[in-house]
Amino acid sequence: MQQQTVGKPIRIEGNGLHTGKQASLTIHPAEPNSGIVFLRVDVNPPIFLKASVENVHSAQRCVTLGKDGITISTVEHLLAGLWGMGIDNALIEMEGEEIPALDGSSAPLVALLKDGGIIRQGERRKVASLKEGVWVRKGEAHIVAVPSPRLRITYFVDYNHSYASEQIASFVITEDVFEREIAPARTFGFDYEVETLLRNGYALGGSLENALLITKDGPATPLRFENELVRHKILDLIGDLSLLGFYPKCHILAIKASHTLHLELVRQLSSKMNIRRWII
Ligand SMILES: [Zn+2]
Predict the structure, then answer these.
(1) Is the same domain home to 59 and 135?
(2) 7, 82, 103, 222: least surrounded by Cβ within 10 Å?
């Protein structure tokens, strides 16, 4: 499989989910082997920030990248959309602190990527295989990665809620599967946690247009999938895996995990996987 980039610049504007602040970004084509790189053009001097696990500033509720006191938050749905559609290289000029929420999923980005075209480049994609199992855990949350010829993600959640009990999903991750089965799944929250979130400065830009709200009476807006919550967790994990900088060939099984544990897995995979260029 060759590396890929966007066919033409893609512009996105909107408010962030957590800060509620307006931001805009333009995704430009980039050279092979450059990876996904943000450029905050609204600070002086402009700051380059590579989408890499070394640049993770925090992972509380969302993933924030940061360097030299400059941050970009809630990168996961954008990174999932790019990686899920096979974009290896892009330069993202960003004005603002938080990625626009759009509809809370990666579907609008996927549509824009398909409209603009995806270009194959002259270098092979960086792929890595796993020799032995990796297990990270915290309390009730676990993630296990085992060797596999292809990337498969299996996820289990249970929020002990009448409308959000056990949900399980398992997919071999391809661009088609990502577009159809994962990208449309929206970020979600529960009505009982909204007040606490707002008090702590989260979800300030949240609305029924950019998040799925689960109330005691059920979802506030129609579900896109019966198990939309667990599919969104897979979307989040894909965004976090993109910070590896290579495509991991393994089966990942996650139970009740969060960004913090996803990133712990990414760090472990980063040190244990053998990167090589290979046709997949
Ligand atoms: Zn998310």
Answers:
(1) no
(2) 222
